[in-house]
Amino acid sequence: MSTHTSQYQKKDLPPVVGQVGFGLLGVGLLLALVSFFVDPLRTKFISIMLFMFLAGIGVTSLFMVAIEYLAGAVWSTPLRRIFEMFSSLILFLPIFALPVVFSMQDLYEWTHKTDEILARKAAYLNQPFFMVRLAVIIGLWIVFYKLFTGNSLKQDTTQDQSLTAKNVKLSALFIPVMGLSITALSIDFLMSLEPHWFSTIFGVNFFIGSLTAALAVITIAVVLLNENGYLHPGTVRDHYYSLGFGMIAATVFWMYTAFSQGMLIWYANIPEETPWYLHRWDGDWKVITLAQILVHFIIPFFLLVQRKNKRNPNRMLFASVWILFAHLFDLYWVVMPAYRPQGPIIGWNELGFVLLAAGVIITVFHQQTKRKNLVAVGDPKLQRGLEFRL
Amino acid sequence: MQVANKTNAVEGPDFSKETPVVLSSPSFHDITEVISRPIESKAGMKWYIALAVAVSLFMLEIFCWGISFYYGTGMWGNNIPVAWAFPIVNFVFWIGIGHAGTLISAILFLFRQKWRNGIARFAEGMTIFAVMTAGLFPLFHTGRPWLPLYLFPYPNKHAVWTNFLSPLLWDVFAVSTYFTVSLCFWYVGLIPDFATLRDRTLGKDFISKVRKTVYSVLSLGWRFSNRHWRHYERVYLILAGVSTPLVLSVHTIVSFDFAVAGLPGWHTTIFPPYFVAGAIFSGFAMVVTVLVFIRYIFDMEHIITIDTLEKMNKIILLTGTLVGYAYGMEFFIAWYSGNIVEQFAFINRAFGPYAWAYWIMISCNVITPQIFWFRNLRRSVPIMFIASIFVNIGMWFERYVITVTTLVRDFLPSSWGWYNPTLVDFGLLIGSFGMFFTLTLLFVKFMPVVAISEVKGVLAQAKPHHHHGGGHE
After folding, report:
1. Is residue B260 included in any domain, yes or no?
2. How far apart are the C-alpha atoms of A222 and B450, rounded to whole Å?
């Protein structure tokens, strides 16, 4: 098999991808609308999950792009365009933020209630500042997205090395910006659902959970595209291996941050901190809490720990789907106890949200593939990336 | 396209080519020669002077341990309310120093970072010496260092068990596991190099015979056979996998010593990863501090290249900024919590009587590494040497700030106190550097400070498709 960069020929994705995307999007939207009329409050809480799911995947995909430039990695260069395409979810975040923004009064206790503690936080937890933060965060992400992908696409035709150098500099700026912004976003949208509670590691935990999900989405796309010959023919199982390596590393790190938070709060047993976990220990929430360990750590860990699994397309697909499920499960566990403290409830409303999320991701990705090469053909590192072997 | 590539080569780095890990394309034999020379030749005057200084400081440490042993921990400044002070600060500081070695040898190995090969051996050695230096502090802090067996849970006739709920006990397990695994990893990596030294020791005099015997025993009958290499690489990979969680676990558990307590300033959920980032930060700084000398003295500037040092400085920038993120989050969440006790702890840190220590910490740990945003500063040896020393000062002060500022201000003002370190405290702090550098200097004299076989593995001619006398094009 030749690994020469000129081997790549762009092929359009079969129309079935678009049909599936639109289908899921349609059904998801319909269910969401019905859900909104049947059970508005529940749907509003679900919309937080949807927004944070898409925001997390979008920005951590862009993080993968940035980290490749910054670390000088080559294994991911043949796949980088896929990362860029998923990070285009960032462009649609304002739409998905709207349902949350318009129902803040119902979702966030701090918007309308106050007490001694909340009064002390009012300088941060107030609606105008919340909006400003949201606008700044999404605005910054869009700017970085445009700059990164703009340079990368230009390189397809010009093969200009200085564009890589530009993106390297951009990455160095993006990483700290992303670190602070994703922390702020997770505090605003998730942590402030229970506004008395606080945890310093919360932002890290959300970031790394989103990264597992982004890698899972990327893996599904890469494996399906490559096995059907849409990527460069020099993309091999060693590239899958590296994605799997990233997923298992992120999964383990997610467990580590979750453990840091849970264990320290349990051990210190301070009344300011324990309520958040106690809400997740009441009634059947306990089942969800304990299941997290299995769903989000033990199963993905054993799915991915062996090298042969990371090189096997079908097993990688299974593991990726599982990890996406695990991330949704985690978001559900973070968001929904605020809606229904007495116990978890999972029905067609939640299913509709999953279908909608899948529909959005597939449709956005499909639209992206229409206009762009699926491989960064002009990247100077592409040749080395294709020669990458374990 | 050809024209475009040529102009770009002038403007900036060429991304289509791998940066060579080793410069001036030496042969395999050159590598063996350069790395074996310091071991086989007589040590220079500089080495003896350095050793004399280090051993003197080590003697000071032994003297201070002796005093602490004979008179007890009352010789230290520790007192209520500051019952934890210099000893725990030094312990955490030295354990942190060790983390660079494990990160470089294990995690960077799993990430297939070839540039690590030139520095891995030295950093691993440092890990072991740092852990040895660190381990003495808690041992003496128990007050009865002659009863170390009581630290381990074992069935005994008194039916006395250790307190399994105490993170201090977890430390015993974590640190001893870390030391054991690091030692195995280091030794396994050394086996082929010991065999090389064994084969090169040809003299018939007494010293040479002793050397030959020692290296023969240490190399465990290694004959460079294909089968040996296959086993070796398998074991190396497994040990790297085993060591990887240890990079995180050890400092995580060290952070638990503080974070499980319900004290403001100690109890915060970001402590575990924040301590790990800080440990890697200080460890890399220490590796840079020492490495810039070693590569100069031993003429290894083409093996431990400026590119390698630049990459290390990037990691220092990254981890320093992560530590800065943790400081920021601590401060912000203390405010956000609305808890006045928590808020007081942080305001007291930054503006209270120990503000000087806090601002030393901030300026050394967060501000100093920011100079590495600039490429020419990352690649300047004097700058990185000074910066790395600042980082280590800052990281020592970080642990001092965490430990002391929280304890001096107890919950009731009537219980507030002060902390004055004694001369013995300072003697142990300074002396611990003596112990560390004594071991380091002996290591660089008697063992290959760079992994001979690993460096050969990243040379151009080690690649299976290497063409003699011609580039890839």
Report:
1. yes
2. 40
What's residue B22's pLDDT?
83
Exposure pattern of A9-38 as b/e (b: 16+ CB <10 Å)?
eeeebeeebbeebeebbebbeebbeebbee
The percent of chain A in helix, strand and coil, each rounded to the nearest 5, is 80, 0, 20
DSSP 3-state assignment of B117?
helix
Q: Which residues of chain A make contact with B261, given a CB cutoff of 8 A?
A: 268
User: Are the beta carbons of A78 and A382 closer than 8 angstroms?
Assistant: yes
Q: Residue B290 falls within a domain, yes or no?
A: yes
Distance CA B431, CA B442 (A): 17
| Average pLDDT over chain A, rounded to an integer | 93
Nearest residue to B452 via CA among B7, B115, B36: B36
Q: Nearest CA to CA, how far is A107 from chain B (Å)?
A: 19
* Residue A36 pLDDT level (bands cut at 50, 70, 90): very high
Number of alpha carbons in the 13 Å side-chain half-sphere of residue B82: 23
Q: Which of B260, B338, B339 sits opposite A267 (nearest CB)?
A: B260
- How far is residue A329's CA from residue A292's CA, in Å, rounded to a whole number? 8
- Is residue A233 within 8 A of residue A224, CB to CB? The reply is no
Looking up tokens 């029905």 gives A347
Q: Which residues contact A38 (CB under 8 A, 6 or more apart)?
A: A349
What is the rounded distance in angstroms from the CA atom of residue B78 to the CA atom of residue B137? 13
Q: What is the CATH number of the domain that holds B213?
A: 1.20.1630.10
Longest dimension (CA), chain A: 69
8 Å CB contact between A238 and A75? yes
Residue at A105: amino acid letter: Q
Residue B240 lies in a domain: yes
Please list, in sequence order, all residues whose beta carbon lies within 8 angstroms of the beta carbon of residue A33, skipping any fewer than 6 positions away.
Answer: none
Q: Which of residues 120-179 of A touch B (CB under 8 A)?
A: 120-121, 124, 158-162, 164-165, 172, 176, 179
Backbone angles phi, psi at A256, to 5 degrees: -60, -45
d(CA A74, CA A58): 22
Q: Which residue numbers in chain B have pLDDT < 70?
A: 1-12, 465-473
The domain spans of chain A are 37-344+360-386
- Above 70 in pLDDT, residue A3? no
What residues of chain A, 21 to 50, have a C-beta less than 8 Å from chain B?
none
Smallest Cα distance from A35 to chain B, Å: 35
Q: DSSP label at B373?
A: G
Say if residues B338 and A121 touch (Cβ distance below 8 Å): yes
Q: What is the pLDDT of residues B212-260, one digit of tens each?
A: 999 999 999 899 899 999 999 999 999 998 888 888 899 999 999 999 9
Q: Which residue type sits at B246?
A: L
Q: Distance between CA B324 and CA B336 in Å, rounded?
A: 18
**How many helices (H) and strands (E) are present in chain B, helices listed first?**
18, 0
What is the number of other CB atoms lying within 10 angstroms of the CB of residue A308? 9
Contact B252 A256 (CB under 8 A): yes
Q: Is B6 a domain residue?
A: no
* String of DSSP letters for A258-292: HHHHHHHHHHH--TTTHHHHHHTTSTTHHHHHHHH
Written as six digits, the tokens of B465 are 């498709």
pLDDT tens digit sequence for A114-145: 999 999 999 999 999 999 999 999 999 999 99
Q: Give the three-state DSSP class for B157.
A: coil
Q: Are B66 and B428 in contact (CB under 8 A)?
A: no
Q: How far apart are CA B57 and CA B65, in angstroms?
A: 12
Looking up tokens 């020492």 gives B290
Structural domains counted in chain B: 1
